[in-house]
Amino acid sequence: GAYKALRRLGLRVPDDVSVTGLDDLALATALDPELTTVRLDAELFGQRGMEALLAVLDGREPARDDIPVELVVRGSTAPAPPA
Predict the structure, then answer these.
(1) Residues 6+ apart with CB under 8 A from 83
(2) Euclidean distance between CA atoms 47 and 66, whole angstroms
(3) Is 5 contained in some domain?
(4) pTM
(5) Looking at the domain assignment, is residue 11 inside a domain?
(6) Kind and range of the H or E element at 72?
(7) Residue 36 vs residues 4, 58, 82: alpha-carbon distances, Å
(8) Domain carrying residue 54
(9) Is residue 62 part of a domain?
């Protein structure tokens, strides 16, 4: 959707605007240019979310554990232009 809206505005990815997604879905490599994305373990993300919800419902402070992520750089991002 972001690519489509940017094209309507006459903007080019990544020449004018860099675009980044989340979840590294299969669609990320079907786009042109391929989408830079943040890969995360969706199952772990859901598990931690449920644990946090149950803790709050039980009146406890939820754990503040990090969830590992990986940046997968593809063609939808470019360096910022010089200042």
Answers:
(1) none
(2) 12
(3) no
(4) 0.78
(5) no
(6) strand 69-72
(7) 16, 39, 21
(8) 20-77
(9) yes
The closest of 65, 61, 60 to 41, measured between CA atoms, is 65
Task: Enumerate long-range contacts of 66-70, CB under 8 Å, 24 or more apart.
Answer: 67/40, 67/41, 68/40, 68/41, 69/38, 69/39, 69/40, 70/38, 70/39, 70/40
Quick: pLDDT tens for 15-47: 999 999 998 999 999 999 999 999 999 899 999
What is the DSSP-derived secondary structure letter of residue 26? Answer: G
Work out the pLDDT band at 76, boundaries 50, 70, 90. very high
d(CA 69, CA 54): 24
- When divided into structural domains, the chain yields a total of 1
Residues in the chain: 83
Query: Does residue 73 sit within a domain?
Result: yes
